[in-house]
TrEMBL record:
Residues 14-37 have a biased composition (Low complexity). Pfam families: eIF-3c_N. GO terms for molecular function: RNA binding; translation initiation factor activity; translation initiation factor binding. This is Translation initiation factor 3 subunit c. Residues 1-108 are annotated as: Disordered.
Length: 813
């Protein structure tokens, strides 16, 4: 009965029963899927028992008020109305035929129930597979087999059981698969379709095993009986079979019925649903979480976790980074999986070396040690969780409290890496252990190579506290008390293992990690020798962006290390070329992620989190201070008339900065770090070392140096020496003698130190300086130096000649 009239009118019971035979409770779904909607609609008026409802309509009283299902029709189309129009409309007669009223029986349509239509569709599938069999068209066979599987689900939803024609189709495809040799198939797409068909028909045949046995024994019986009764079927054909046979099952319905569906049936449906369109990942996660909450074997739990963790990571793949709550859920799932594997290490192991198990319901075959190896990659999960952690840091505001809270999770990451390393050490074969552990070693170094010893001791101590006391690493023994010495041994041991690997990427990364760690701990010469002997710099330009950024960071750290050791010339030499670049942030990977073009692949590789940045202000101050100590004495010597080879300088050298400063129309007090260095340089030019030191000590960037006090002491001593040289070069024109004792008092240096400096500059440059025999006086001998007025006049004459040549080029001789 149509629902349009159900709430308004009452019908004769015969009519209602007749209609219920034609249309099931889910008539809209079945009718629309059968493709014959028009016939089904007309069948309402063509019911064979329509005469039983004629008594409800008074055909003799045409003036009476119409009622019933015909009330909305015009009078000529109502049942029993005048003329033959009604019969023609209701019975589908030919309107152009004037004898249509005499051929009503011939124009009547044949109406089939939804059940018969479904059986006809299955028969059509059977015929199409026979046709495709002739041409070995496995693509068509696969499509038709999927179609008949969906039809079976529709049949079971209506409690019609399993049609015999379905069993015939399964047997037909199974025989065809068994009679075909895969080696004879040349095309890749056809071979792929054949493999998929073989896997699916095996599953379906196994679920209908009893019916298949009966069919093989007597195929003729399946032609006589229309269907296999659902209630008489074996337990395998219950709700589990319904879900297992349906490739496009509604996951929400599966989640609601998860308590009734078997563990592996639900898990297999979730696995098959991954990657398909219009599939809600949260529903898949809910299903597996319900499975994990139920009682199951360790193997079932392991397979569930191996499915759940990738789904969690894929659920938010369209976002810039995984939400923190989802990340922590995936982290907890992985740690639960690792704990489960550790508890059952003698029985089950997850390994990348295991063979693929086609049927997840069957446990893998145990090896000689009785261990069942399950195919999977624990390192892939560790790498993905670590990458998502880094992405979240890159996308958060580094100056917010949210960033600091998120940064605390780095301890969780390091704990996970250490536990995974210890598990892999126990499970990997000896011949492949170091090769496969290399990747986890690199991840471990990622989190410690740039930290200070104090931070590394904390993170390493907490990590070992989270590990069972019985677990030990065979590569780096852990002492009772973790200290800086252990951290140095740990880094060098891990780097030595990685340097031996054939993978050039891992080898180069390990070398750079070791150099950076050594330089940050103050051993400049060892770090420099290590970098030069590795010859990494010769091929670094051909490496990927992440390695180039790491190399640039190593170079900067080397320069800072040289400065901490007061090796001014070495620091200037190391940093000079790198700081000549106008894009220092980019080459160090310290630009914000948002400024990188979104179309560039691997944007995260070109950035590093904020807490790993090397302070750009510190780099600038270190280089300018080195430039100050080297270039200011040379500048004063040159301007005083001493013949000296001028060194090339970059845009950030103190000489170029002083030139811009002197050209400025207004020169205010120092405000920035660079201003303090500039004013220190101007004071040094005059020999005023106290003012120079005062300006340099006002720079706040020195607080970022771990050994600030030692650096400042060395820096004061070096400023005194260079100020003394500048003073002698500047004022030698005005004095004939310099007292060593007086110079010692002015510059707070020992007399012996003053004598050594005077002898060195006398030897280095052609200066008319001479110490007396007692070495108490520095005598300035007369020479051919010009006065300051003569120097200005010569410079003016030179400028005049240049201007004249530009204005009158034709007068050149």
């Amino acid at each position: 009965m149509s629902r349009f009239f159900a709430n308004t009118y009452e019908y004769d019971s015969d009519t209602s029963s007749s209609e219920s035979d034609l249309l099931s409770s889910s008539d809209e779904e079945l009718i629309s899927s059968s493709g014959e909607e028009n016939q089904s609609d007309d069948s309402f008026f063509n019911d064979e028992d329509s005469e039983a409802s004629d008594s409800d309509f008074d055909s003799d009283d045409s003036d009476s008020k119409p009622y019933g299902p015909d009330w909305f029709k015009k009078s000529e189309f109502r049942k029993g109305g005048s003329g033959s129009g009604g019969n023609k409309f209701l019975k589908g007669a030919n309107y152009s035929d004037s004898e249509g009223s005499e051929s009503d029986d011939e124009g009547k349509k044949v109406v089939k129930s939804a059940k018969d239509k479904l059986l006809d569709e299955m028969q059509t599938v059977f015929d199409k597979i026979e046709t495709a069999e002739m041409s070995d068209d496995w693509i068509s066979i696969l499509n038709e087999f999927d179609t008949v599987t969906r039809l079976l689900v529709r049949a079971r939803q209506q409690n019609w059981g399993t049609p015999n024609i379905f069993i015939k189709v399964v047997a037909q495809v199974e025989d065809l698969v068994n009679s075909t040799n895969q080696a004879d198939i040349k095309k890749k797409d056809v071979a792929r379709a054949y493999n998929t068909t073989r896997q699916r028909v095996r599953k379906v045949a196994k679920e209908s095993e009893d019916a298949m046995i009966k069919f093989r024994e007597n195929p003729d019986d399946f032609d006589k009986e229309p269907t296999v009764d659902l209630e008489s079927s074996e337990p395998a054909m219950d709700i589990n079979a319904q879900f297992a046979a349906n490739k496009s099952v509604n996951l929400s319905s599966l989640a609601a019925a998860s308590s009734e569906v078997s563990f592996f049936t639900s898990l297999r449906i979730v696995i098959d649903s991954r990657g398909k369109k219009n599939v809600n990942p949260q529903e898949m996660i809910k299903i597996i979480e319900d499975l994990l909450a139920s009682k199951a074997s360790p193997y079932e739990y392991i397979m569930a976790y191996l499915t759940l963790i990738p789904i969690r990571m894929e659920a938010d793949s369209n976002l810039s980074y995984q939400p923190i709550d989802q990340w922590k859920a995936a982290y907890n799932d992985y740690m639960a999986l690792l704990k489960l594997l550790e508890d059952n290490i003698a029985t089950y192991r997850v390994s990348e070396l295991a063979t693929y198990n086609e049927d997840i319901e069957k446990e893998p075959v145990a090896d000689a040690q009785g261990v069942k190896n399950i195919l999977g990659s624990l390192f892939a999960y560790v790498e993905r969780l670590d990458d998502e952690f880094t992405k979240s840091l890159l996308n958060l505001d580094p100056h917010s409290s949210e960033y600091l809270i998120r940064l605390k999770d780095e301890q969780l990451i390091y704990n996970m890496i250490l536990k995974t390393q210890l598990y892999l050490e126990q499970t990997l074969p000896a011949d492949k252990k170091e090769t496969m552990l290399a990747r986890i070693f690199v991840k471990r170094l990622d989190h410690i190579y740039y930290k200070s010893d104090k931070l590394n001791v904390i993170i390493e101590t907490n990590a070992w506290k989270s590990v069972s006391p019985s677990l030990k690493s065979e590569y780096i023994p852990v002492p009772a008390t973790i200290d800086a010495k252990y951290i140095a041994t740990l880094v060098s041991s891990l780097c030595d293992i990685l340097i031996k690997q054939e993978d050039s990427f891992l080898r180069t990364r390990a070398i750079l990690y070791c150099v950076f760690f050594t330089a940050s701990n103050g051993d400049f010469h060892a770090a420099k020798d290590m970098l030069l002997s590795s010859k990494v710099q010769s091929n670094i330009s051909k490496s990927n962006s992440s390695l180039q950024i790491l190399f640039n960071r190593v170079v900067v750290q080397l320069g800072i290390s040289a400065f901490q050791a007061c090796l001014i010339e070495e620091c200037h030499q190391v940093l000079n070329e790198l700081l000549a670049s106008a894009h220092l942030k980019e080459i160090l990977g310290q630009q914000p992620l948002q400024r990188i073009n979104s179309n560039i692949e691997n944007r995260e590789e070109q950035c590093i989190p904020y807490h790993q940045h090397i302070n750009l202000d510190l780099i600038d101050v270190v280089f300018m201070t080195c430039s100050l100590l080297i270039e200011i004495p040379q500048m004063t010597a040159f301007y005083s008339g001493i013949r000296i080879k001028r060194l090339p300088y970059s845009q950030k050298s103190i000489r170029r900065v002083l030139e811009h400063h002197d050209k400025a129309s207004f020169q205010g007090p120092p405000e920035t770090s660079r201003d303090f260095v500039v004013y220190a340089a101007k004071a040094m030019q005059k020999g005023d070392w106290e003012s120079s030191i005062s300006y340099l000590q006002s720079v706040k960037s020195w607080n970022m140096l771990p050994n600030k006090d030692v650096v400042m002491e060395d820096l004061v001593e070096r400023v005194k020496v260079e100020s003394l040289k500048s003073y002698l070069y500047t004022y030698k024109k005005f004095y004939s003698k310099f007292s060593v004792k007086q110079l010692s008092d002015v510059f707070s240096l020992d007399s012996a130190k003053i004598v050594d400096i005077l002898e060195s500059i006398t030897t280095e440059f052609e200066i008319n300086f001479k110490l007396n025999d007692e070495k108490t006086l520095l005598v300035v001998e007369g020479g051919d130096e010009i006065t300051k007025l003569e120097e200005v006049a010569l410079r003016l004459n030179k400028e005049y000649k240049i201007t004249k040549e530009r204005l009158f080029p034709s007068r050149r001789r």
